Amino acid sequence: MRKPMAIMKFPRVAFRRGRRADSTGARVSEFEPAAVGRTAAYREIAEHVDRLAPGAVDEASGDVLDSWIDARTEQRLGELDCDYQDYRLHTEVRAGRANAALPRLEIQLRHEELRLAELRKARDAAEARLHGNASPGALAPRATEEPGATQAPPSVPYADSGYADTALLAGRTRGSYAYLIALLFAVGADISAFFQVIQLVMRDQAQAVALVLVLGFTAIVLALAHCAGMMLRDRKAGVRWVPAAGAPLCALLWLLLGLLAAWVRLKFGSVPVTSGDFSLGEADQSQSGESFAVPAAATFLALYLGSGLVAGVGAYLTTNRLQSAYLKAAKVHDRAVQRVAVSTAAYQRQKALAETHLSALAAAEDKRDRHREIVLAFAKELKSYARELIAAKAQDPALTDALIHLVPAPGGQAPTYPASA
């Protein structure tokens, strides 16, 4: 999911410089009006005064530059309004996009929260069973029962079988990992032994085909041994859906396959194998005779029985359906918590981004109004400066006094500027 962070860029230089970062890390452009340019304005007024002809200004025409200053002021105010409207347009577009993404993020967040609530119930139920109790709420008395009546506790599966153990909430024991390591070595040993048997029976087969057969045979026999131990443990725990003949049947099939492989190793062990040069610790094939075949078959059978016992006994000792159910529920629950955290952060970031855009619009309007007042005040300052320059150039005390105390001409009105939209 793309992060809802945006750095807004606008074409106008007037407000491109400003950046404001909110608490979520998103950066939003601020409205920056163009500078008034005081130095250039003062220089321009001085140039206009220098170009005035001698005697062009008297007591009645002391405001000769006011109309020019008013025109430049209106120009600056127009540029200010244009910059503000451009900023407002771009910011409203970004705010609309941010608001449009909120419903999708909210729906996703609600879905993740609903899923988290379901998984929390599953985890609590699995935890209660691992404690040896019924599911949450099962022990509460019913409203239809009498207050003094005693309610028999509900039967909890596996409560007296060793499956229920609060300490198992911490995770699997070290013995479980030791069993997996031993089983891994047993798999490697079985592959080596079974490959020799396949080479004895299928001498003309390609080594790749033989290797596939070896891997399949190894998986079958170890799965049978593992299922035998697991079913025996479940039957002892009282799992009703596990058939009583399941464990003996798996053990019988496993034993028959082992005896068959040992018989093949004994029967064909004296025949040299020349089907290839691939060997996994195989004895010298030039040796022959029953003296070599019997020890080889006995070694193979011992290895087969050992690996089967590792798989079966290990499965019996490590099987715990309550712990497996709890670990699965806890793992999925933790993932759901992470997804809810990510969805919540994305929703809050997008919501904060939309609110930041709206705040930026309000701040831009206030800044526009303040800058407008600055421009109008600067226009009055320029008019006063122009009169001072004119009076200094004329060097006439009467004219200077008239300019300083200048009032609008008869019938004249002070300039008015349109209010901002």
What does this structure look like?
It is a single chain. The protein is mainly alpha-helical and 421 residues long. The protein has two domains: 13-130 and 335-404, no CATH class; 170-319, no CATH class. The chain has helices at 38-51, 66-131, 174-201, 207-237, 246-267, 290-318, 321-394, 397-404; strands at residues 19-21, 27-29. It has a two-stranded antiparallel ribbon with strand order 1-2. Helix 5 packs antiparallel against helix 6. It is elongated and about 140 Å long. The chain crosses the membrane at residues 177-202, 208-229, 241-264, 292-318.
Which short descriptors sum up this protein?
single chain; 421 residues; mainly alpha; 2 strands; disordered N terminus; disordered C terminus; Putative membrane protein; coiled coil; transmembrane helix
In short:
Helices cover 65% and strands 1% of the residues. The chain has 421 residues and is mainly α.
Overall radius of gyration: 46 Å
Contiguous low-pLDDT stretches (5 residues minimum) are: 1-24, 137-155, 273-288, 407-421
Main sheet strand line-up: 1-2
Write down the overall geometry.
Answer: elongated
State the domain count: 2
DSSP strand count: 2
SS-derived structural category: mainly alpha
Put simply, the count of helices is: 8
Distance between the termini: 40 Å
Give the SSE string.
EEHHHHHHHH
Biggest beta-sheet profile = 2 strands, antiparallel
Report helical residue fraction.
55-70%
β content, as a range?
A: under 5%
Mean pLDDT across the residues is 76
